[in-house]
Amino acid sequence: MKALEIRELLDRHGLRLHRDRGQSFLLGESQAERLAELAGVEVDDTVIEVGTGLGALTRALAARASRVISVEVDAGLVRVLQSEALLPENVELLHADARELDFSDLIVGAAGPCRLVANLPYSVATPLLRQWLDMGEALVDWSVMVQREVGARLLAEPGSRDYGSLSVLHRLCVDVELATQLGGERFYPAAKVRSSFLRITPCRSREVGRDELRAVERLARSAFGQRRKMLANSLADFVKESPGTFAEAGVSPRDRPQSVSPEQWLALARGLLAGSGDAST
After folding, report:
1. Which of 48, 100, 137, 253 shows the greatest Cβ crowding within 10 Å of its Cβ?
2. The CATH number of the domain where 120 resides is what?
């Protein structure tokens, strides 16, 4: 759809955009088709899409996949999609909040390989990205459109300004590839920031258990929440009963969190788990 067509469609149904939800709509069928191609969607796939919008990307995904399950939180948009018959027959539309959805049920019920494609507003990106790390073994991959700032965090190298707990968790479990970037003019209304389209693939050779990943998450979030402090101070409550944990992980207590590699974070977490005997630590 073009910007004028989108505006007329919204006006016809008396809809106004919700800025708090970061609503914007992809312009142009060719761009949607390119994103579906970059996501690697194949003919036997079931695709779970988060953020139907007005269905531009949904239609491109449906043209390549066997089935698309598309999730949209906005009741007004769901009404438009249904009343205007904007979606192909192989699309199942769910009116739901993705943050409250049991993705495991959708994946279990999928026929054939299952991929996930999402357009994530800033406000919901982090919790959903974290949730999907725990489902990696069930998905071929997931491709996400996020603000460039979020994309930079996922791609960040140790020692860089954008490196943080989200970077650490993703580097331990998945490979993140920057497929493309889109300027604000590619959306209606025009976005004020650039967006990154990332393809995220589970790395099956890396064996990190869910309990271990939760332990890494607790440590990293605590430390990066005080990123100017030395680890001896920001992690004092975690290591007071296991003072040798730093040395065993090859980390100095004087290090700042941004200088610690993902593998060292994992070693720290494993050391604390072993010392406590409690996988929930």
Report:
1. 48
2. 3.40.50.150
